[in-house]
């Protein structure tokens, strides 16, 4: 029985040619390498599909239109790639969000030598990075709660000790971009934090995998650091201003999270519609029943609304700094809602078959939950929109 339908949303038809061509290239590459059996195999084994990631990088989907010593890739281009990955190899899409963040940080704050050593292999797919920010005592409020310390030594290097939590891909990453508190600055929680590039092979780093319900093709890790020595040339950006530098990238991270969530929603809808067209009950397709149709239609409306939010937000971000960042917050919220709504509808449409681990709906259902709290909880996103867009008093 066919479980996948091909849909062509109206919003895709009007996509600018540059990004429509990119989308077609990504789909062609995925069609060449990805099968339902391959997706299911890596999800069930809880293993990262490294070869697929390398194929995508070799095809230019990490570097995109960025230059090694110039500006990074456009947000609109990143969103196209991530939506397509979200609809299929979702764990690779989540991993790519992390890679794009590393790419953006190295483009924005890396010096020439750091870009040659760390950014070039990211572009080519010869290296992967992990972003080590959150800690056991702090996720949303991580700056205030940051306990990982970077102590400067007499030779100018740093000794870093502490623990990071929920660090995607850290077990096999080639290097970490890691934040640690280097100064105690009175009256400021976000100052006094420095960003470091730390090769994963550096002595004193230990990682443990966290068992998770979703995104099982990308390990989430505890990272333990004990007297990890990092030379001064591996400081990324300005000492004591690392968290402020990361804040400048959060707009892009929200956009990219929204893109993967949108892809999950689209993949789930295509699966559910394909099932509804072919699954028979009472002598006719289950998709002919009004109640099921309404759920699928409502999901489709949420998907297209999220797509238009995302396109507007990515276009605004590419226009330059100072644009209205509430668009990215709205896009993330809309895409999260689309993903959780659509995967719930899909489970209802497929009924018992949605529970079957040999079909993708249960994977979409599990994976979609990530974006209710990452890269920022939906509740905090609402707080941000209330303050910045509606002009309401700050609620936290």
TrEMBL record:
Cofactor: FAD
Pfam families xrefs: Acyl-CoA_dh_1, Acyl-CoA_dh_M, Acyl-CoA_dh_N
Keyword terms, alphabetized: FAD, Flavoprotein, Oxidoreductase
The Acyl-CoA dehydrogenase/oxidase C-terminal domain, residue ranges: 240-388
Keyword Plastid: no
Record Gene3D superfamilies: Acyl-CoA dehydrogenase/oxidase, N-terminal domain (1.10.540.10), Butyryl-CoA Dehydrogenase, subunit A, domain 2 (2.40.110.10), Butyryl-CoA Dehydrogenase, subunit A, domain 3 (1.20.140.10)
Domain Acyl-CoA oxidase/dehydrogenase middle: 130-228
InterPro entries: Acyl-CoA_Oxase/DH_mid-dom, Acyl-CoA_Oxase/DH_mid-dom_sf, AcylCo_DH-like_C, AcylCo_DH/oxidase_C, AcylCoA_DH/ox_N, AcylCoA_DH/ox_N_sf, AcylCoA_DH/oxidase_NM_dom_sf
Domain Acyl-CoA dehydrogenase/oxidase N-terminal: 19-126
Similarity remark: Belongs to the acyl-CoA dehydrogenase family.
UniProt protein name: Acyl-CoA dehydrogenase family protein
Lineage: Bacteria, Bacillati, Actinomycetota, Actinomycetes, Micrococcales
